[in-house]
Amino acid sequence: MAADRTPRFYFSLRSPYSWLAYRTLLDEYPDIAAAVEWRPFFEPDQLSEEMLTETGGSFPYTPMSRAKHLYVLQDVGRLAKARGLRLTWPVDRAPVWEVPHLAYLVALREGRGPEYIAAAYRARWEEGRDICDPAVVADIATGIGIDARAAAGAADDPELRREGLRLLHDIDRDGVFGVPFFVHGYSRFWGLDRLGDFVGHLRQRTAPAGRLPEPVGAAVGLGPRSVDDGHAGGCG
């Protein structure tokens, strides 16, 4: 079977490296930001994990060591400072990552996907807010003009849970083990430090005449366990 040629960016509202990749895409590579399909990546809670297992899928993760955690704190601080970005570290209390990521699907349905991601990243990484709190999600939704009740209750919506399950299967099929993660055909690029390589690859493969294709998706568009964050450019 031929590989899907749709260029995809797997982003996570949880990950600081994903936040930095988001900012870099918009600030330095707006043509790429408009051309890729944005797909949310989130660690499944118990319900989602059970649904995923029952339907033959799996989700890769490894526990994050204390040493890695401390390194990420230091490294992200350096990277944000070098980019002139304000960083406020959030504190996650019993997070359920379906809460903010399935709310993105509500925003996408209402044509406000990019605005939601911008507001959610700002709330988490610049204001230090708990975006797994439905009240915070409702506030974000109100601010961008979408249904606050639907967004705040997205994790309790069976239809959105099923859509989230499809996204988890996409993550599994694409071999996504951390974020930010970029996919085009058979090519995979993991981490903030591979973003430039992905940009060069995509421009070379899809725009030999100097023009990127029209956007294929709405350009916009983790708790006690973490996907592997084995190098500084990518984590869960």
Describe, in short, the structure shown.
The chain is of the alpha+beta class and 236 residues long. The protein has ten helices and four strands. It has one domain: Glutaredoxin.
The largest beta-sheet arranges its strands as 2-1-3-4
Q: Can you tell me the CATH topology?
A: Glutaredoxin
Q: What would CATH call the architecture? A: 3-Layer(aba) Sandwich
Task: Work out the radius of gyration.
Answer: 17 Å
Pfam family, one: DSBA
Catalytic activity: 2-hydroxychromene-2-carboxylate = (3E)-4-(2-hydroxyphenyl)-2-oxobut-3-enoate
Organism: Streptomyces venezuelae (strain ATCC 10712 / CBS 650.69 / DSM 40230 / JCM 4526 / NBRC 13096 / PD 04745)
Domain DSBA-like thioredoxin: 9-202
Task: Please give a structural write-up.
This protein is α+β, with helices and mostly antiparallel strands and 236 residues long. Helices cover 49% and strands 7% of the residues. It contains ten helices and four strands, in the order βααβαααααααββα. It has a four-stranded mixed β-sheet. α5 packs antiparallel against α6, α5 packs across α9 and α6 crosses α7. It catalyses: 2-hydroxychromene-2-carboxylate = (3E)-4-(2-hydroxyphenyl)-2-oxobut-3-enoate.
